[in-house]
């Protein structure tokens, strides 16, 4: 294995450990998140996003990595988001938590994993159809908020941090 694979393995194990310790692999936490009654998963995800966005942007500024946006395609976002949300609601797991739950020995999570693999295979088979239909709805190209708002990416980071920290305070006041 090369260094990137080792780093991927180590960070994957660390992420799984944090998922388990944060109790976000628990079915009741998943249901609580979907019902907006338990913000544990959202707090966990937002914390990861806060750290990740600073780290990735810092690495890009240092020339260590480059940012490469995927095209902002309305059809892909609407259909993909609906499928992701439906799968999460039906199974009670998102992709990361399903693998973590299986790692904890909760075998029913295997159905979610098989569903994800089957869905990916089905998408690959139907891609020519999607390319001329759903994916052709509207493509805004490779854009992000900084390009749309004509501001530095660090401004977006600061606003996101402020909004997220305010949301955390509100969650805590509400006991969520």
Determine the fraction of residues in helical runs and give it as a percent range: over 70%
First-residue to last-residue Cα separation = 43 Å
Radius of gyration from the CA trace?
A: 18 Å
Number of contiguous helices: 8
Overall pLDDT metric? 89
Question: Which percent band covers the strand fraction?
Answer: under 5%
Low-confidence stretches: none
Largest sheet: none
For the secondary structure, the number of strands is 0
Please provide the ordered H/E string of secondary-structure elements.
Answer: HHHHHHHH
**Class based on secondary structure composition and strand pairing:** mainly alpha
**Shape assignment:** globular
User: In total, how many domains does the architecture comprise?
Assistant: 2
Detailed description of the structure:
With 176 residues, this protein is mainly α. The protein has two domains: 23-67 and 143-176; 70-142, no CATH class. The protein is 72% helix and 0% strand. Helix 1 packs across helix 5 (95-103) and helix 5 (95-103) packs antiparallel against helix 6. The longest helix has 24 residues, at 109-132. It is globular and about 45 Å long. The termini are far apart. The model has no long low-confidence stretch (mean pLDDT 89).
